[in-house]
Amino acid sequence: MDKKQKNGAIHQRKYKITGLFFILTIAILIFLFSVLKTISSERDMPSHNSIIHDRSFRGSIISADNYTLSSSEKTYVASIRGASIVPEKKEVFIKLFSIYSGIPTAEVRKAFKNRKGKEIQGYIALSRTINSRHAMQLKSLAYKLRKLDVFQSIKLKSGVEVLYGLDIIENGESRRFPLKDVLSPVLGYVGKKMEEGYRRPAGKKGLERNYEKYITSKKDGYFKGKRDVNSRVIHDKNSIKMLRVDGLDLHLNIPLALQRRVEMMLDSMKTKLDADEIIVGVMESNTGKVLSLASSERYDPSHITQKDIAALNPKFSEYPYESGSVMKPLSISIALEHGLVTPDKWFNTFNGRLQIGKRHWISDDDKFDALTVTDIIVHSSNVGTSQIAWRLSGQEFREGLLKFGVAKPSGLDLSRDLPGQLKKVRKLDHKLHKASTSYGYGMLITFAQLFKAYSAFNNDGLAMSPRLVNYLEDAQGRHYKLEPKVPDIQAISKKTANQMHDILLEVVKRGTGVAAQYPGLEIGGKTGTAHIAKNGRYVREYHSSFYGFANDKFGHKYTIGVLVIRAKKRYKYFASQSAVPTFKNIVKILVEQEKLIPDPEVIKKMEEDDMYKLEEVLQKTTQPSVKIPKIKKKKELVKKKTKKKVKKVKKPQIKKVLKEPSLPTTQPAPEQIQKFENIEDLF
Predict the structure, then answer these.
(1) CB 368 within 8 A of CB 376
(2) Which residue in 621, 405, 475, 683 sits closest to 422, CA to CA?
């Protein structure tokens, strides 16, 4: 019995030893497995490698005289933890941050409170638009604040205490317009787009939008390699550097000096005329290079407000309007081109009033029995222009206008280039529609289209697409030229262009454009005063235009356009009283900037004449004053001649009395066109 008990105890001991050995073996295996796993797995330790990002920039926009009009810079976010600031030193922090960042103290203080007015203890973004200069200053401030023990440790939920400070981190790229409203709305403005949490500018209007694919940033750079104990990347054979690729710079044809002078003049003229807006353009007639494109309605692209919304869309190519009489040179040029008229051919103008059908009349402001083709333009006769247009078929008339670029994009390199509106051939085959179109009613055309068309009269018939951008440039200084979106077009022959060129000179010599004359220069152009249509009716509001050219004997040739929208001062809505003086002011600026040089011989002769007149005045004033008795002249009796019969043809004379243009009766406003579908029944 004792032996059995002894054997059982031995077996139990064996089992226990075996169990303990098995447990120990498993424990050793688990330990070895965990060690192996730790060795083979990636440890959560700081990497020995580091990378520095070099973000690429959007290209700049630069004037012809090398001034930066638009550029990009990095932006930074300044952040802090509310609870990390020692309460007694919070006010010191706010004041110092305000000084170093340029942000008002009230705005900084407000950032520490939520919408309910309670203090924020967590993450606070004090500003997300810190520029590079302020970012550098704030980084210096952050270091100084740590030295001054402005920050305190924060105990996290895990029990770990962390000392946070003022963090300045790059967060994006912003667009700068250092000259504020200069060259707006041509430059346009930008919005924003996000790329992996990094904010980039994106063009929304104007040049910024039109050249987006060229000036937007291309590729970010970086520098990658092993880091030292101070976390700086070590430059060695194993480090990798990738250069950034910035967007291309736009170099304009517009010099800032000229543009700013023109804009200041427009501001003055807008006040003088009480106009809604004035837009002007100056272009080299033989190259299409735009030297100035300006509006009186401008804005600061960096700070767009509610009142700026109407000015955001540049009217140069986005504002189709009924242009009125400035269309007459185009219409008559087509007839000249087809050999249907000559400049000296006479037309019966029916004393300024001609009936079409039973209910419609064409009327002129100045009444003449007859006029030559030249004088039809000089005196802006609707009656004469209509009769010339009637000699063309609808097909010939429409195709002729299309050759000038009417109803087509002008090629002006802005974000939108509207084509306008021109009637179809079947309508232009009818007298009423052809007549109204010939003098600029019942059709829509933009400033840029007329600007382009008039360049043909100063460039041997070749209409040039306006070019704002001269070339694009990369970081290595290589230049790239772009072809215009719309090619230049041979609108008319050289012969016809020269004929119309001479006629437009006559308009300035003795017609509605006399106020544009400038001694020693060759000036030509055409006025247009057109009613504005509202709700299907023409109202007492006007578009006043003057398109023409200014040349000197040294080879400088410029096409100049002026559009005045709703001049409200009495009689200032006449193009001769608004658009023409504006044109003259532009010519003066071009002379001041030495873009035009008046003929020295003409100027010398004028100075000599002025000196002669001055000497006469001086001689009279230096003579002793002698009172000379007035001698009354006897009236001579002249025998009155018998009146002859009135000739049907009068010698054309300019009417000096200003009167409001008669409302156009030959064509409805664009809104009314649908109501006149059955007008063909008249014919």
Answers:
(1) no
(2) 405
* Alpha-helical regions (H) of 149-289: 206-210, 212-215, 256-273
Side-chain half-sphere of 223: how many Cα atoms within 13 Å?
9
Helices (H), 528-667: 579-592, 600-622
- Rg of the chain over CA atoms, in angstroms? 40
CB 102, CB 94: distance < 8 Å: no
In angstroms, the CA 444 to CA 321 distance is 5
Distances in Å between the Cα of 257 and the Cα atoms of 473, 590, 595 are: 22, 11, 12
Exposed / middle / buried, residue 11 (Cβ in 10 Å: 0-12, 13-18, 19+): exposed
Both tokens of residue 657?
């009395």
Residue 421 forms beta bridges with which residues? 444
**SS3 category, 679:** helix
Q: Does the structure show a pLDDT above 60 at 640?
A: no
Q: How far apart are CA 532 and CA 669, in angstroms?
A: 8
- pLDDT tens per residue, range 309-366: 989 999 999 999 999 999 999 999 999 999 999 999 999 999 999 999 888 999 999 9
Residue 25 to residue 19: CA distance in whole angstroms: 10
586-596, pLDDT tens digit by residue?
999 999 999 99
pTM of the model: 0.81
- Residue partners of 218: CB distance under 8 A and separation at least 6: 56, 245, 246, 247
Which residue in this structure is represented by tokens 């009489």?
Answer: 325
Write the CA distances from 209 to 205, 305, 413, 482, 657, integer angstroms.
5, 20, 10, 16, 48
Domain range 256-297+315-600, its CATH number among 3.10.20.310, 3.40.710.10, 3.30.70.270, 3.40.190.10: 3.40.710.10
The crossing angle, in degrees rounded to 10, of helices 132-147 and 90-101 is 150
Q: 489-490 and 479-480 as β-strands: parallel, antiparallel, unpaired?
A: unpaired
Q: What does the domain layout of the chain look like in residue ranges?
A: 50-105+122-252, 256-297+315-600
Name the CATH superfamily for 50-105+122-252.
Penicillin-binding protein 2a (Domain 2) (3.90.1310.10)
DSSP code per residue over 526-566:
EEEEEEEEETTEEEEEEEEEEEEEEE-TTS-EEEEEEEEE-
For helices 579-592 and 256-273, angle between their N-to-C axes, nearest 10 degrees: 150
Distance CA 496, CA 11 (A): 129
